[in-house]
Amino acid sequence: MAVQQAMGPDPYFPANGDARYRVHRYELGVDYRPGPNRLSGTARLNAIAGRAALTEFQLNLADFKVGRVRVDGRAPHYTHRGGRLRVRPAKPIRAGAAFTVEVQWSGNPKPVNSPWGGLGWEELVDGALVASQPVGAPSWYPCNDRPADKASYQISITTPSAYQVVAGGRLLTRTTKASTTTWVYEQSAPTSSYLVGLSIGKYQTVLLGDPGPGGVPQHGHIPAHMLTEFSRDFARQPAMMELFEELFGPYPFGEYAVVVTEEELDVPVEAQGLSLFGANHVDGARGSERLVAHELAHQWFGNSVSIADWRHIWLNEGFAKYAEWLWSERSGGRTAGQLAAAAHRKLAALPQDLRLADPGRKLMFDDRLYERGGLTVHAVRCALGDAAFFRMLRGWATVHRGGAVTTASFTAHAGRYADGPLDDLFAAWLHEPTLPPLPQTSQASQASQAGGTVPARPPYPPTNASSA
What we know:
single chain, seven-stranded mixed β-sheet, 10 helices, 24% helix
């Protein structure tokens, strides 16, 4: 799937990323010592120049000591300040040419500053985790930090043997020598830099359900004392996976892992093939089950189908929010319509100053974006009817698998499934700050919903798609 690259700098984060080239593979080798919080690493980036020759380019890398830089094996001129590693190759790189960049770096990793506090590498009481959305990836490795620049990754991490390393992707090897262990993970699917997740800690690993032949392996990595509560809180995740595969298409990656840290987190964080939860999200009473569904849904919406730049973040969060509602509807909770009505009442009492399609950096993580995003998806469902809506939804996740999209991509895609123009609907929900009326199912749509894809209140989540 070709990535729809945004032209020029990201309007919300102009200092991050470089649109003049793209990376198609990262090979990272990292050594991390939790006690002194010391990291050293080597990176090899396989990249391709854009439509113009590259006389210079930049990577994003936080405040580390850079020991060596090579471009196609030759020493370039480079500067490193303000989180930017500017590189001028000894010889300009031809337009469209493949090239390699090698970087060595070391130091004490820490979160990078952002309007939302520190992002990226976080030292824990006993271990570390990486939660990078949206611009925290340079806190621990050099990268072209823009969501549309998606690449495959191989990550080798060496730590003291008492610690377990969990990263998104397939564990290739685990090798112990003396007191250290090296973990090598491969993520072959195209991955945005902010979605490279990592956790280093002392965990017990459990299998969530039996994936069966051709199923998706799902593992939990949790502190041993949380096992009982975790087993209840995440018991229905395999049923969520079955529902989402039924509605959105096959799970886009090879495996899925969840990590629970000893520390509390404000919100769970998605990464590619991996989600990170805090101890506060495990209570033994399924108190955070909607968040379990939300993070799983991001594997389709946000991770596999990524955004070209951060103006379009509602495409990540609105669809993940609506997946929460679909899970509730399928599992015997409130229907999506009931949850949409509750969200509409909530938003109607709040300021009307958010434009969903371009919220601005200040509001890109505002709770209203999540709720209005879910309502917009529900408005499309009401306009199309269930049969067309779920064909549209599955088609969206399938056609753009591994790619990057914009709001205009989605409106054009949805329009292909409609009997009439959707221009007024999208203008009201996406581009105007005033909250439109609660979406209502049209008479034409009601007919198509008579045998709706997601029954409102079945007695228990079905165990396979055929029982839906």
